[in-house]
Write a structure and sequence with these properties.
heterodimer; A: mainly alpha; 28 helices; disordered N terminus; B: about 210 residues; six-stranded parallel β-sheet; 11 helices; 6 strands
Chain lengths: ~675, ~210
Amino acid sequence: MSVSIRIGLAFLSTLSVLVSAMAQPADPLVDSLKQALRSAKADSNRVKLLMDLGNNVGYYDAKAALDYAHRGLGLSKKIKYRLGEGRTHYLLSNTYLDLGDYQQSKTHLDTAAQIFRALKRPDMLGKIHNARGNWHYLQSELWQAAREYGQAVDLFHRLKDTLLEVIPYQNLIAVLGETKNYERAITRSKRLLAIVKQRGDSLQMAYSYYYLSNNYIALNQLNAAEPFVALLLAFVQQSKDYSLAADAYNVIGLYHFKRKDYQRALGFYQQALEKALRGDYQSAQYHHAIGRTYLRLQDLPAAGEYLHRAEKEALSTKAKDLYDQICRDLGEYYTQVGKPALAYQYLQKYTHLNDSILVAETRQYSSYLEAAFADKKRESEILRLKTQQLEKDLLLKKRNYYLLAAMGILALLGIFFAFKTRYDRNQRQLLEQDKKLQAERILSLEKEQQVISLQSMITGQESERNRIAKDLHDGLGGLFSTVKMYFSTLAHEQPVLGTNPLFQKSIELTHTASEELRRIAHNLMPEVLLKLGLINAIQDLCNQINTGRLLNISLQAYGMEARLNPHTEIMLYRIVQELLNNIIKHAQATEVIIQFNRHDERLSITIEDNGRGFNASEDKAGAGLSTIQSRVNYLNGELNIDSTQGVGTTVMMEFYLSLQHGTHPAHR
Amino acid sequence: MVHILLIDDHPLVTDGIKTMLATQEGIVVSAAAKTAKEALNLLEQSTFEIILLDLSLPDMDGLVLCSEIRKNNQSSKIIALTSTNETGIITQFLQRGGNGYLLKNMERQELIEAIEQVQLGKIYLCKGANEKILEQYRNVEVATQQAPVLTRREKEILQLLNEGLTGPQISKQLFLSPLTVETHRKNLMQKFEANSLQMLLKLARQQRLIE
């Protein structure tokens, strides 16, 4: 199911239009802006004009938008207009994102964030979070996207800015849809629809129709989708908003596609493509939709052309999920044109892409989202404790005054008050201790909160992996093995059959299938980890990698004779696995040392490579380190990264194995 | 006649193995069990030359069951029948008294060969398992090295300890927290099996890691 991949992005730029020029038709607006620009002096107003222009032409001419934004940036720098500088960076980042240039987009976004932070503009920082969300979203990094959207919602919520809050909220709904939580997306869309209806905001209402259509269609409840599809169509037919129009026509097309009315679907898809092209948006998904429809209409040449175009675009913009689906359809296409070898190639790409990991990521995200919503309560508890602490602070100050006064009187009245002072000091010490306790409680509650949300995410994911691996082994694995057993018995009983090449091929393929299945199940959850524990599993992992001869890993374990709690073992295994993956992917190292040292309750793990190193403070967010950081947090551990360019990277982690995470009596 | 006890909870797999052996003279599957409990009961009643054992059973881990069987029975040959091929599990199984290791997607010929080989008192590993074991030995050179391998940080700290610096001084010089330095120091002692700083430095000198 293809859910829009640009929709989230459309929102913020749309909004700036809404704010600056509500309900005005776009082109006269651009003209009048150009007019104003001609007479504008080189001041901050001119920067604003340039930005408005950039925002508005961005719908159909991204190149021109870039030009305006760069001019705005230059001018802002010249007149030292920091806010303008931040905003133009922000605009540039959005435009580059539209063009699929993630690197540029990120650079500008980071700069903008820095400026807004310095200017203390939480509203703009909220937009930045939302934009970061879009950035991840477009690259199918849904979990990260959701986190950024969540932070944006939080920020706007605290600023009591409901207008802005709607945007990341809509984007969160998009993620819910993408992660196949359709029912929840529908519930939330309906709630949001009620709010925007009250405000009479027709564009936002249209977005709600869009999401409702989309999610009902995803659930195959076409009758429920029907009224919303109609409302959406009515809206886009009279609206000038390209960004929504492209997505809207796309989903309307999908509706008819599902109704098997391919001719009409094609019409709407073509409208969607046209709007997208006018808006200069990434058009892979539209080409894909059209190609797919031609395939159903048996117009194979057209189908091939559109699908290949979509393939190329999806590859260049790294839209993983979309590319995945395109491969599937190209597989079907080549089957129909009678080229089985090519068809097989595409289908294999499809299955590879569709491998467990994508599924796991999706699931991981949804449980994370659940936890995030459940956490609100705890947050309020923390707030309450914080206010309590403030009150105590106040009291303490008062006490200090008393103390001073008492000392004044002491000079006059002597011994009696000495007693009183001591009493006061005791009281004060007591209070201070109390305060410290309180602060610790707040800290631990905060930590606990973090842990709970991570916990539901991670345990859900791991138990899911375990279940799938088991199902694969026990179910499918057994079936494949049995088929092969029958085959080989058959070959024994009917020797003639055994020499038949088709028969031999069948045996071979069954064998390959069962090997492939074993590989997948192993990646999901290595049996050795559950049966024999962490060090054995990691040794296995190292052996595998060493055999490839790309990397030489030496594993050293001290004090690791007793097994840890199985849950902790899985977590630590994943951390090491992830770090090794990073090293293989990015570090260009030849030697790696993995070291486990356990002293009673303390466990330290060091992973060191001799690769090219990186800048630890900058790259910490990227490079997969953030997932590692959250896993380490989850185990209440500390992560220390020490990287020198050209020398290598040392990652050191320290854990305190509490009873909960600690030693598990070896049961064998 | 070779009597086989087949322990597997997957009915189709059981049927597949019976089918494969049905036409083989001199070998007969004389009993089948779906759980470890059933298997232990059957083993109390009669004797089998060969036990084909699925390593993942619903009620007990296959490795544990292997040890259980070996407590009272040294004569039956046990062949593991599994869908996982992992070094640790293969070696564990052999250590617990297993005689053969077969992957479930074997062919008929391989099963029969395995049965014949273990009957002769040999250990039989299927091709995949063999490769896994070899994989491990390719790495053995590193795994059994005499001197512990040190990380860069450890080398630095060892050097500074040798120069007579204290923990806090080292932490200042390397911009590390004192706790981290302490952890490194403890790790070093653990690696060299030293119980004092003097001993650590002496051992390190012997291995020519410091001057």
